[in-house]
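Q: How do we represent a protein-ligand complex in a form that can be generated token by token?
A: Start from the inputs.
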Amino acid sequence: MAKIIYFDYCALIILAILLISTVFRKMIRGRVNHYFLAMLTISIITVLADIWAIHLDEMGPGNVTAKCIAHTIYLLVHNFTPLLYILYLVAQTDTWHKLNQSRFQKLVLCVPMVLIIGGFAVNPFRHIIFYLDENDYYTRGSHFLLLYVSVLVHSIFGIIYIIRYRKLFSKRRFSALLSIFPLMMAAVVVQFFYSRLVVEMFAITCGLLYISMMVQRPEEVIDTVTGLGKLSAYVTDMKRAFANGKPMKVIMINVANYSILWDMLGYDSMNEVLCKIADMLADLNRKHGVEAELYYLGVGKFRFVVDYRHFDQTEETAQLVNALMKRGFRYNQMELNLVSHICIADCPKDIGDVDALLAFGSDLNTKAYTGEVLYAAKLYKKEYYNIMKDMDRIIERALADHKFSIYYQPIYSVNEKRFHSAEALLRLQDEKYGFISPEVFIPAAEKNGAIHKIGAFVLEEVCQFIASEEYKALQLDYIEINLSVAQCMRNDLTGQILGILNKYQVRPEQINLEVTETAASYSQKMMMENLNALNAAGISLSLDDFGTGYSNMRRIASLPFHIIKLDKSFVNEEDNPRLQIVLKNTIKMIKAMNMKIVVEGIETEDMVKQFSDLQCEYIQVYYYSKPIPKEEFIAFLKQNLSH
Ligand code: C2E
Ligand code: MG
Ligand code: MG
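Then emit the structure tokens for the protein with magnesium ion bound:
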């Protein structure tokens, strides 16, 4: 009875379209895509072999060799499909290391295949799988059932594998990946009872089509500019790898001069440059057989994720990438110079979670450029990233449980030869992490908005102190309070500050507000208005951390500052004669503008003397006193007054 092979033709057309569209959609890099492409290719070969075999059978006796070849190809390749699908699932779940560790799983995968290959090897002599009868008609052999058993074993393995790792998939992916099994089983049953209906390959093709639509979606994983994996794919893959405890080495490549190149080249040309870099990296990956997964996370950040089989090549690859990036390339008659930070992170040993991996990757750009390959093992401070991750909760807890406290650091007046003021510095003692530096929690509080509550707390505490009897005995002129950028941008800032001063009966001249140089260099109208209003209300202002940012001198001169605080990094430049000239002339310039100077953080007694000689009025250094709690501060000043 003639077989109905239209289903095979349909399958062939769908598979061809899938193969072409997968290539056109650039789903060709990485293991997952490789296995999907392999499945499509193997399915096409199977369908072709099936059609060929059926046609030969219908031609009647003869063509013995061709029939044997066609049937062997069909049966053998067809039997590989479930195994290949399992490998695709392993790639999807990124669980190679686990599969590799389990001897049982490897046996379940290999034994059926070995038996089948052995069966086909002896088939020409023993006819155990299939043979051609006296009419040269295809007939099943005594051990044909072996093929069904193999498919069944691999299918059960695949189903268990998907269910075991279901947490790694969204519902959509889970159902799509599972769908191929019931489809295949149904087709096998149909074909078993109605052998004329050749539907097995059609069923598998439907499954692959569904997977292609639901799982193999380039818009979810591929960066359209570079063709590499995109940020969301990186995050998903890394999360999965961390959840599986999979060891991997990540080579981070950050083009540090990305924004300069962007400004210089513009959108289209910059995209071409990024494409070129991506191609260079992909070429290197291929040529050296590293088989790393490549990603582009945006803003000049590329990632190579090397798995454990190629760990020994990681160092060499990073060095090659470094050399490649340092060489730069020619683009439109221009020699493009790529300044890139390259760093190897051994995960999960060095860095154990995705958020920390991303944050560390971004912070790399703040490191000084050395031209050498960097190592997360040396640079990564676990505690810091744990704190950063937990920061919102830490701040909330500190505000609720009153864990913030104010320390005071006395400021020495060179002319008056006494401590004439002090700076209020916030301290946070967390029950879990211990002391946390304000340099860590203030930027976080600025991001999550808690800075406004914190700022109000500092002001209240200081005003309460200033209003107290014990403060009066200290004979201080004022207390300096730090204002953050976010506070300076608020339109009700002046009203809020004056309200608190009023509440404690503190006069405006009893406090001094510090604004950092970086904050002052924002040309925000709100900031200008706030500073002018505070000044008009009688509050004096200091420019903090001078010498650390890129201040526009013209703007600074136009803002109503009374004091400039020279930052410790600016004043500790004894060994650089040119910077010494800049420093001396800066001091002259500030004095000519009638502003006073506070020198912060100089290290030695000699330097204290040197800056006093340069007519800097005030000195705030550990040499005199570190920031100390209020009671200690009171005792310290009282002791000094009595001398
Ligand atoms: P800042 O306002 O420039 O404060 C001076 C910093 O220099 C303080 O660090 C102080 O302990 C440190 N310092 C003083 N003398 C020396 C010295 O001789 N050697 C060295 N190496 N360091 C010295 P601290 O307390 O860790 O504060 C860091 C920054 O956190 C402050 O820099 C300020 O920008 C910010 N901050 C602190 N408290 C507050 C606050 O209440 N509000 C806001 N918005 N920011 C604050
Ligand atoms: Mg300050
Ligand atoms: Mg400062």
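The mean pLDDT is 92. DSSP finds 27 helices and 19 strands in the chain.
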